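Example 3.2
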Amino acid sequence: MKIVAFNGSPRKGGNTEMLINEVFKPLQEAGIETELVQIGGKLLRGCSSCYACFKTKDGQCAIQTDEMNQFIRKAQQADGIIFASPTYYGSVSAEMKAFMDRLGLTTIGQGRTLTRKVGAAVISVRRGGAVTVFDELNRFMLGSGMIVPGSTYWNFGIGEMPGEVYEDAEGLRNMKDLGTQLAWLLKAVQAAQ
């Protein structure tokens, strides 16, 4: 089993990545393979709404000028996906939005290939807006037919400068619980197939 986390923060090694790594710990202890994919800071173009992916049905985007097709393949090959984003003006990062729009359309065009994959949102926030980002990421997953576990609270950690999320004890506990919930759910889904 494998779970891939897509980090929408352009700040490599920042708070969003640190929170992802906290979620990874219980997953790795449960024997689940983890991979972090950095999409933040990449020049990802938004969806052009050309619907070529509905014609080809190959799960690939017709836009060939960025790394998106590599990211789509990683998402499709994974058993679980973590969508992680910082909070920018009460929303996801631009890279995460472009990623979700293009991933969503190509996988729908191929036959809803995200259906029954396990998914979770991870959010870093300086102060406010995290619940909106949490809602945006969850709406994408639920609208894609993914299975989303709950945790002890909303999946975000508070901190402005890199490393400040380690001062958010409740956020760190929630990331650990989220990883534990994901591990259980991934195993339950695998056993049901």
